[in-house]
């Protein structure tokens, strides 16, 4: 955005500048290799962790930053996912969506043991909510957890779990009570729990640098301390946890839009057709005007939401609506950028070609566009809660 932001601070500017330089120097040159490898090198986790970005909202005694900042969370996601391969953000991102329930609800012993190694990037954690039979309909998950002789026994399956092959710790939603949302609890599951196994998921259309897994729980045995938070109150914890995940995907989509815009503009300034640079054709100029307006609107909306969070609010409806705006805008911006590239857009290695293959995961993952609109409608009091 060319207009100054009333929400920019010297701290944010410094963070954005430093992190962008890191992404430019340490990530961008390796994108093709990591996409081909279907993973990022393990050292990348620790290198990103140096920026403190896995420690937002977590006490310093556990390796966290000791403060939270919604703007800097946004800056992080925008810049990392905007690098040109959003799968790299996903590859390290399993921990950002699973760390908060551990920090909030794990026993003191587990917090001391688990949080520092996850926050420092030495170990990975992942969030397992989705099942083969239930994704959007979280209240209907079927993985079960039963108490037996002072232990918990888990049975069931989770699928599409990002970071699932690397993670050593899993936050898992399971059914401990009756049907529906009041019968769900959260558990902290170590990769070495008896009865736990995992299998990698096969090919994907995008997010190639990241891995997803199916997790299997076959009479998986957990200590009584594995329960995270109150029994049968896991649904609300899952919903609260989704807020920052969704805001992160919204910021990520913004970063991807900016990359589409910048790459298309570079191209349109170079490429000549009918004796003029592409950008000088009125129809193409209009595309840039519309694309930049969408980018500016999304950025303004996200910053306003971050401001509200910093005031102590959690604007659930706005986060849901912003995610839909960002992913629908991303579709528009990426499509226009490809149109501007012409045939070159269709070739592997074009910067927008990869983003085109990554749009749908932003529009579906962490709560699809349909589900986000439904949630917003309920939160706005227009339909039953
Ligand atoms: C690459 C990748 C990574 C992922 N990582 C994780 C992870 O780390 N952890 C995790 O737990 N999950 C993860 N997921 C799962 C993801 O969050 C789900 O795919 C998503 O929530 C949608 O669930 P579903 O696929 O079961 O679709 P479904 O719930 O079966 O929905 C299918 C379609 O129907 C629509 N729909 C469903 N219900 C309604 C309704 N009531 N009204 C209108 N439309 C409706 C949906 O919007 C969707 O378009 C990942 C998925 C992918 C592809």
What does this structure look like?
By secondary structure, this protein is an alpha+beta fold. It folds into 3 domains: 10-119, Acyl-CoA dehydrogenase/oxidase, N-terminal domain (Butyryl-Coa Dehydrogenase, subunit A, domain 1), CATH 1.10.540.10; 125-232, Butyryl-CoA Dehydrogenase, subunit A, domain 2; 236-379, Butyryl-CoA Dehydrogenase, subunit A, domain 3, CATH 1.20.140. 49% of the residues lie in helices and 15% in strands. It is built from 12 helices and 10 strands. The strands form 3 sheets. A 4-stranded mixed sheet has the order 1-4-5-8. Strand 9 (272-273) and strand 10 (276-277) form a beta hairpin. Helix 8 runs parallel beside helix 10 and helix 10 packs antiparallel against helix 12 (369-379). The longest helix has 37 residues, at 234-270. The chain is globular. The protein starts with 9 loop residues before the first helix and ends in a 6-residue tail after the last helix. Flavin-adenine dinucleotide (FAD) binds next to strand 1, strand 3, helix 11 and helix 12.
At a glance:
With 385 residues, the chain is an alpha+beta fold. It has helices at 10-27, 31-37, 42-49, 70-81, 86-93, 99-105, 108-119, 234-270, 282-310, 316-341, 351-364, 369-379, and strands at residues 125-128, 144-148, 151-162, 169-175, 184-190, 196-200, 212-223, 227-228, 272-273, 276-277.
